[in-house]
Write a structure and sequence with these properties.
This protein has helices spanning 3-19, 25-32, 36-43, 46-69, 75-92, 94-107, 114-124, 137-153, 159-166, 172-180, 183-188. The protein has eleven helices and no strands. The two termini are 30 Å apart. It has a single domain, classed as Tetracycline Repressor, domain 2.
Length: 191
């Protein structure tokens, strides 16, 4: 994506973050100070606008996760960063969060898997044998995101909940690493 393309998609993304998706192309174009024709030339229709901005948003979330994960001591901490970033998105990018939640819980209208790929990458990059490699990762990804989004939707994300979600994947070494996590210090950077 060129710098100009990113500027254009970010402008549309900011519109949706601030105003939601329930606007006509004409209303969107007026807000962006461009003509409806220009908007149609870029995206063909509103569904493509939403898909493109959803994809852009997921990449932003993954970028934020990756920027913070490089400071993690292990993959357990990186998964907790992923959880916290998704929680932050629920609070600040609500319209996108709910659209992605519906996608991850089976609607599959938009079908992009940026978060799932990030999760799998963290698991695959584990250097401490924290995760049980016998578990079918594709099945666990569905389990993980279904539970994560359920608890986030209920606003019940606690350390015990995170442990509950991750426990089936953790080896004994992983459980020890989880218990060593300094949640207070790790979560300070998330506020």
């Amino acid at each position: 994506m060129t710098e100009l393309e990113e500027k254009k998609i970010n402008q549309l993304f900011q519109f949706f973050v601030n105003n939601g998706f329930d606007h006509t192309v004409e209303e969107i174009s007026v807000s962006l100070k461009i003509t409806p024709k220009t908007l149609y030339n870029r995206y063909q229709n509103k569904t493509n606008m939403i898909f493109e901005t959803l994809t852009y948003w997921q990449k932003l979330v993954v970028q934020r996760i990756n920027e913070k994960a490089i400071y993690c001591n292990n993959s357990i901490e990186a998964l907790i960063i992923l959880i916290c970033e998704i929680e932050q998105s629920r609070q600040t990018e609500t319209f996108f969060f709910h659209l992605k939640k519906d996608d991850l819980l089976g609607d599959d209208q938009y079908g992009n898997s940026e978060w799932e790929n990030c999760f799998i990458s963290i698991i695959n990059d584990d250097k401490y044998q924290s995760f049980d490699k016998r578990i079918n990762i594709e099945t666990f990804v569905k389990y993980f995101f279904t539970n994560l989004l359920f608890y986030l939707s209920k606003r019940e994300m606690f350390i015990e909940t995170i442990h509950y979600i991750l426990e089936p994947l953790l080896t004994e070494s992983g459980k020890e690493k989880f218990n060593e996590v300094d949640f207070e210090t790790l979560l300070i950077g998330q506020k």
